[in-house]
Amino acid sequence: MAETLFAVQDLSYTPEGKPVLDRISFEVERGEFLSILGPNGAGKSTLLKHLVRLLPVQAGSVRLLGQPLARYSPKALARAVAYVPQAKGFIPPFRTLEFLLMNRYPHLSPFEKPGERDLRLVADVLQAVGLTGFEARYLDTLSGGERQKVFVAAAMVQEAEAILLDEPTTFLDPRHALDVYGLLRELHRQGRTLLMVTHDANAALAQSRRVLCLKGGRVLYFGAPEGIEPGRVLADLYDVPFCRYECSSHSSQPPAFLAGGGGA
Questions:
Q1: What is the pLDDT of residue 263?
Q2: How far apart, in whole angstroms, are the C-alpha atoms of residue 154 and residue 6?
Q3: What rounded mean pLDDT belongs to the chain?
Q4: Which regions of 177-231 does DSSP assign to beta strands (E)?
Q5: What CATH superfamily is the domain 4-228?
Q6: What's the DSSP call for residue 227?
Q7: Is 157 helix (H, G, I), strand (E, B) or coil?
Q8: Which pLDDT score is estimated for 91?
Q9: Of 52, 57, 87, 110, which residue is 20 to 30 A from 255 by alpha carbon distance?
Q10: How do the residues of the chain divide into helix, strand and coil, expressed in percent and rounded to 5?
Q11: What are the residue boundaries of the structural domains of the chain, listed by start?
Q12: Mean pLDDT score, 79-89
């Protein structure tokens, strides 16, 4: 039986009297790929930020490997969990190599400089994400797809067991989105635990072992992708009809869903 990595129980968050999360409960197993779906304002990003302690737990509990999240030191938490924020946020004013080496801090002593192993790891990761030769490029000179790969690479060099991604393919063209999804599949194959907030329902259903659907700060569905039906879950989640399209009998691809199709 797989070991539980995250255990969230009755998590609620009500900033300034406005409920954003309402008694959220779910578990994430080690090595799992979990996608979090929901409309804008559903609480998806807020939930993810609670799992990396960017937001305080007001009510309920978040446990990591059986221990309350609050008991972890910053370095211990960073060795366990890496966070990839939305691409539309602040762009750090650093070169690619500098930025990636900064993410080695959980494994270095205070005032210790990155060594040969750190440099080799960064080089290997840049090769894995297809950005060898970008070491001297400033992040604000990269395209959106290139920059998103650097952010995923930063999580990789952090060597955390779990990687939490907040809409990693938003604003990316189809080619770069496919590149990022390919990276995530490979990380999952290597044993990393992945939690991904996304609006791409088809990618979530194709890649995830389980899906968490949030609406109005509450859990609408939590379970296997096979339990997602356009008329029973997706239509309720997004308040629009969905159509289901089956691939040919010779294809290994799962069915695809299209919003606004007018039927289940």
A1: 44
A2: 22
A3: 89
A4: 193-197, 210-215, 218-223
A5: P-loop containing nucleotide triphosphate hydrolases (3.40.50.300)
A6: G
A7: helix
A8: 84
A9: 87
A10: 35, 25, 40
A11: 4-228, 230-264
A12: 87
